[in-house]
Amino acid sequence: MFDLTNKVAVVTGGASGIGRAIVERFIKAGAKVLLADRNEAQVEGAVFHQADVSSEDAVRGMLERAKAEFGRVDILINNAGIQPLGVSFDELTPQLLQRTFEVNVNSVAFGIKHGGQLLESGGRIINTGSFVGMIGTPSGTAYSTSKAAVIHLTKLGAIELSPRGITVNCICPGTVLTPAVTNIPDNPEIPFVSKMTPLGRLAQPSEIAAVFHFLASDDASYVTGAIIPVDGGITAGWNEYPLTAPDNVIGGQWHD
To answer: What is the CATH number of the domain that holds 75?
Structure first.
């Protein structure tokens, strides 16, 4: 199921976390993978390409490298990103906002631009959003806004690339047990999100990669412009919301 044999995929941010899980899963499914990242990484079966995807030239270059290496490009995963959560408006600086958008937003915009030009008809572009791009979260000024932009770029890309037979979709993970989360000492996000998420826990990278796998496959041929939360239900609503019914609700009935 979801066979990717002979498909060529480019995965940005593939050195760790969700990106690495995608690379490993795609290889097992038969894909040929170019792993693009600023940090060198070795994954058996993948070709490493060093790139800072905040640069348009770097985005174009990695796609051209994949085409030269494998003869075609079928799948582009725009996954690379930085995660400056915990920054309020009072703490926001021009440098932080600019760098966050360069990495998280510009890379996706240029990925859609050059992917649309280089991918085969029937190709797949899949962007990594976030649940915090779908709902308001305190102290997410730069990061949350950047992910909201990724969501909208996905919709625009789906419309513009549809005549070329290329689908564009976005997966919005909840909080995932990646180094960006687990390497923060005593990270308060972990118990808070676990408590508020209906499924009661954080995601493993492999659970997010599974949905990328579906969208990259031929089975997802009629899915485009979709924004798919893979978040344990947290965007559906809080797991807890302590409330007390008013005194005039008695026995499940409203009394005027």
So the answer is: 3.40.50.720
pLDDT in tens, 166-181: 999 999 999 999 998 9
Burial class (CB in 10 A: 0-12, 13-18, 19+), 174: buried
- From first CA to last CA, the distance across the chain in angstroms is 58
Residue 101 lies in domain: 8-254
Task: Please identify every residue annotated as catalytic.
Answer: 143
Tokens, residue 251: 């026995």
Residue type, 244: T
CA-closest candidate to residue 124, choices 60, 205, 52, 212: 212
Confirm if 171 and 208 have CB atoms less than 8 A apart: yes
* Counted domains in the chain: 1
Tokens read off for 158:
């789906």
- Rounded to 5°, the CA angle 147-220-173 comes to 30
pTM for this prediction: 0.96
Token duo for residue 143 = 């990061």
Distance of CA 81 to the CA centre of its chain: 9
Task: Please check whether residue 159 lies inside any domain of the structure.
Answer: yes
